[in-house]
Amino acid sequence: MDKLLLKEDRVHGDVSFPLGSYYMEILPGATVLDCHWHEEMEFLLLTSGKAQFRIETDYYDISEGECIFVNSGELHAGFQADRSPCSYKALVFSPSLLYSSAFDTVRTNYVDPIMKNSLVVKRHITASPGWQSELLGRLGKLFGYLQDKPPAYELLVKSELFAIFALLSANGTSPANAADRSQDHFRLEKLKSALKYIQENYYRKISTVDIAASVDMSEGHFCRIFKHYMKKTPVEYLNYYRITRAARLLEGTGMKVLDVAMEVGFDNLSYFTGLFRRHMGMTPSKYRNMRRAKE
Fold first, then answer.
1. Largest alpha-carbon pair distance within the chain?
2. Residue 57, Cβ neighbours under 10 Å: how many?
3. Cβ(237)–Cβ(230) below 8 Å
4. Which residues contact 111 (CB under 8 A, 6 or more apart)?
5. How far apart (Å, rounded) are the C-alpha atoms in residues 270 and 225?
6. How far apart are CA 259 and CA 248, in angstroms?
7. Is the pTM here over 0.85, yes or no?
8. CA–CA distance from 279 to each of 112, 206, 220, 232, 235 (Å)?
9. C-alpha closest to that of 39 among 15, 78, 9, 69
């Protein structure tokens, strides 16, 4: 059973240089980025098309040439705009890359305040004249160093990353009401647990009662919180997640469509086909044929 856990356990780089970069091309109707989180920080630079990204409770409409910054431990996901294709580069790195010891001034004054949200930095970086445009230029140079690997490229990468954080820090703002942030944090932790439960049990027959019970909440209260933050009901999200798992099976295996449907938790082929068409814009068979034609 292919289980994609909500908390990513992928290793980005290595212990001596904890940073990784990736390039993703997203075909029409495909998922841009599954909902997940990790301890590393991340920059996502859209290289073509448009997309919408969600960080915790906020949504950002991103156009080509713009980027978003995802802080350590933040729940995030990406969605296509009007089912249109897009592509992006991702830079994922440990905050430890930016400091040398527990008492490092850089960590104390600049990295930790951003990580702990005691300094709120801009998440959606556009090509606006000034510091945002400079940040995008430095991020582009950083990706270039990682691709070309010139002599001492690690030093060049770190120098650009330090400059990027200097821009973020210099243009940060004070946080909102602490009590509101604490309440949001509590609810988001519950939401993360609920999403993890769904993603570990999607192939079973589970109900909203089961999901709510997994986070020790009443069904009604849980459904209201879930819909508020996810813009979907728990059942809508469960079906969406099942369809994304089905799409991966259609791409990577020769399983019959009926077997795929049953593998991801559906026992009615017509219902599965209808949901798949609604989410992916085509039937399961057409989706499989299209993906194979792209290979």
1. 60
2. 14
3. yes
4. 95, 98, 99, 165
5. 31
6. 13
7. no
8. 40, 21, 26, 13, 14
9. 9
Please list the residues that pair with 26 across neighbouring strands: 86
Q: Residue 166 corresponds to which amino acid?
A: A
DSSP per-residue string spanning the chain: -----SB-----SBTTB-EEEEEEEE-TTS-SEEEEB-SSEEEEEEEESEEEEEETTEEEEEETT-EEEE-TT--EEEEESTT--EEEEEEEE-GGGG-SSTT-HHIIIIIHHHHTTSSB--SEE---TTHHHHHHHHHHHHHHHHHH--TTHHHHHHHHHHHHHHHHHHT-B--S-HHHHHHHHHHHHHHHHHHHHHHHHTTS---HHHHHHHTT--HHHHHHHHHHHHSS-HHHHHHHHHHHHHHHHHHH----HHHHHHHTT---HHHHHHHHHHHHSS-HHHHHHHHHHH-
**CB neighbourhood size of 230 (10 A):** 20
Q: Which domains does the chain have, with CATH numbers?
A: 19-170 (2.60.120.280), 179-294 (1.10.10.60)
Q: pLDDT tens across 253-288, in order?
A: 999 999 999 999 999 999 999 999 998 889 999 999
pLDDT tens digits, one per residue of 160-218: 999 999 999 999 987 766 555 666 778 888 888 998 899 899 999 999 999 999 999 99
